Fold these 2 entries.
Entry 1:
Amino acid sequence: MALREQFAYERVESRLEALISGGALGPGDRIPSVRELCRMERISPATAIQALTNLEARSLIFARPRSGFYVQSRPHLPLPTPAHAIARPQRPKVSEHVAQVFRDFDNPRTIALGAGIPHPSLLPTTEVARCVSRAARQYATDFGRYGSRETDLGLRKEIALRLSLAGCTMSPDEIVITTGCMDALNLAVRAVANPGDTVLVESPTFFGILQMLESLGMKVISVPSTCDRGLDIAAFERALSRYRIATCILIPSFGNPHGASLDDERRQTVVDLAARHGIPIIEDDIYAELGFDNSRHRPLRTFGRSGDNLLCGSLSKTLSPGLRIGWVAGGRYAEDVHRLKLVSSITTPQVTAKAAADYLRSGGFDRHLRGLRKMLETQMCRISSAIARAFPQGTALSRPGGGYFLWVELPERVNSLRLRDAASHHGISICPGPIFSHTGEFSHFIRVNCAIDWSSAVEAALQTLGQLAHVQNDSPSENS
Ligand SMILES: Cc1ncc(COP(=O)(O)O)c(C=O)c1O
């Protein structure tokens, strides 16, 4: 089929759309006026108005009377309802479910709306590749030996420096470099708990944590965490008093899946309560650098006696999931973490550790992060607006101030596992709610990843998902 030439208004519309999706124009930013567009693009006022009207019809921009057009911010849907109550200790069984959810994952034709994987276009992959090639040349002899505490010292110093900028001062000596955050969490929990022990998590929480505890033969107790304030402190206190808990794994900054964060006052209370019961907290800090207002939450460690709590993080969500660089700052458990790392995988590949240190030292990371946050916020607005337009009445939506995810509560008649199956037939993958709970709660919730490359195909996929949800919602017999 011959490609037709774009009309002038389509060209301007695409150009403005690219500025919005690329983050150059963020939520609430003013769009160039009709007069400015005419001058910049050498078009007539009618053409400029047509382009703006189209963007407005697609909810990308909105008009303020006598002021002009602005980039759309997020719609105000109600917040999703939290988990019902503390769920008593039991062994999690989510692995099979998760495996099923990720079945179509590697299919390049699938529009992946669920998995928390950043689209490569959001990351500085060329710069990272350059650092890796340079490190491979410079440290070629590292391929001929195992690493030691000396070979990754450069990276440990860079991480200690970044954490100290977040108010968390520590020596590089207590940091162990790991193969991503998953490895970090695994080592941290094994340093403070044994098979059969009970670990407290938030509900909902990242399914990877539940899978890990399942594989380690540990039991899980979960405490409700709300979309606006994070962990329910009163329930947390009750759980600590009532049950014998070995450790808590918390995601207090832009949590997965709901994007909620604890404020400083609540961080202090959580740390004090855990200290009173002599329970170490393992903090998963992986999204903490992704606050849309460019501020960074202080890690929980800074609220207590330094060394009592463990801090895990990685570069997977901010720089490169493929580098597989993570860390644990183990506090007084650092030697145990180090020993466990030796036992499980000896070291993390040293050449990539050196490449990561090189990238962090280069000074471009903060600039990249500012762009990434802007893009994530823009995508979150667009996806929120698309959900508000396409999903059934009664849908509720989280409003995170950072991170990757939107937590969506559909009307109760919609079953998210069945929605997953239906979506999969349309080449769309989603993350259904029950994988975020060790008791299978959240049957009418889904998690949506906003770290994607926005396109008309994504927009159409969200619309299709909305239609599928409508079908379930309107057919009560399907759910009986
Ligand atoms: C909260 C949380 N922790 C840990 C991980 C795993 O991170 P990594 O890829 O660095 O192992 C993820 C990935 O989705 C996550 O969302």
Entry 2:
Amino acid sequence: MIVWSIANQKGGVGKTTTTVTLAGLISERKKRVLLVDTDPHASLSTYLNFDSEQLPASLFDLFQLQTVNKETVQPLIVKTQFENMDLIPAHMSLATLDRVMGNRGGMGLVLKKALDALADDYDYVLIDCPPILGVMMVNALAASHRVLIPVQTEFLAMKGLERMMRTLQIMQKSRSADFNLTIIPTMYDKRTRASLETLQELKIRYSDQVWASAVPIDTKFRDASLKHMPASFYAKNCRGVFAYKTLLTYLERLEQDEQA
Ligand SMILES: Nc1ncnc2c1ncn2[C@@H]1O[C@H](COP(=O)(O)OP(=O)(O)OP(=O)(O)O)[C@@H](O)[C@H]1O
Ligand SMILES: [Mg+2]
């Protein structure tokens, strides 16, 4: 089982879109994927047409469990309408976790423990993070083999990325987190100077960590989200989906090299 977190402290950069689009493509490749929505706003759950207020359980309940094992974690999972794709939905109450549990020891490894218990059930786990550094992001990073960082190819993007990279370095230094990084340039518009220059700068400054391509601006992503479908099911031949296909192949190769 391979675990990826999709994270960036900057909001609106394409985290949820990246999560759901990659999941769609993974499921089409006949691999089993579990999505974990760690954002109290529950954008990923809403995208997949779940109203977390109406569901009997959510990720919040994981943090209330006395014992974390397969029997206790499985009831938190819902099946999506897509084959091979399950979800642990988010709930508004996740926003209270930092206040309630921030100071309790051992809380940073709860999600990792839960995913370890599900290791036989899935090929991939994709964790969609909120744009805040808190208990949820700490849990996500500690559980991950790789952190995917979508970066909007826009002016000021580099500032936000520097902040995120500092956070990740601090996490990597702590013993609980050991992950690789891949920066994913998103919302690339080749007609604008901002996009061209930001992409160029990313490649220079983060040459070892950046995916050397980019996800283009594509209105199909928004349309797909309104239809509650991963873009590859909604508009399988659009250029945005093509970019994520290339990205997935690239990431799979990285994981294979890593294991070799
Ligand atoms: N490549 C793209 N081209 C055009 N629109 C995009 C692209 N990627 C994402 N979007 C749109 O941009 C908006 C923000 O994307 P998304 O919700 O994925 O970002 P996010 O980083 O998860 O945001 P948040 O920090 O609020 O969780 C959405 O309306 C989405 O449909
Ligand atoms: Mg999001």
